[in-house]
Amino acid sequence: MLISEAFAQAASGSQTEPGLMSLLPLIGILVIFYLLLIRPQSKRAKEQIKMREALQKGDEVIISGGELGRVVSVGDNYVTLEIAPNVEIIVVKSGVQTLLPKGTLKSIDTGKSSKSTKNNKTQKVTDTTESSNDDKNGDATDKETSSEGNKKES
Predict the structure, then answer these.
(1) Tens digits of per-residue pLDDT, 8-36?
(2) Which of 27, 59, 79, 153 is the most buried (most CB within 10 A)?
(3) Which residues of the chain, if any, have pLDDT below 70?
(4) How are beta strands 78-84 and 96-100 bridged, if at all?
């Protein structure tokens, strides 16, 4: 029995080497995972921190809630933004998501004013059409009542 146990131990010792070889694909997958996912994410995080530290008065930004605003003042942890004329909010610096190119807010405001003018014109046309339809319906209703009144009298 001792000889068979010795052979069994010798055979199990040679099996550990292929076990180490089977770990190489797992290590390779971990390296690829690091290079493709973790490293680029950490680069983006560093760029985001750099952008937040470089904020200045007059910069145009988008905050995490999706609001657009112009930087009025910058503190250590907070930024004051003007989101509309005479409307200012204070947000945490980490809430600033994107730095917009200068003039973006002006171009958006210009687009809104031209769209609102078009909407007002459309609304006026619709209102006029509705009022003329009401007049026609009102006249028809009056005629029906008068004809019903004539029938009752006859």
Answers:
(1) 565 555 445 567 788 889 999 999 999 99
(2) 79
(3) 1-18, 111-154
(4) unpaired
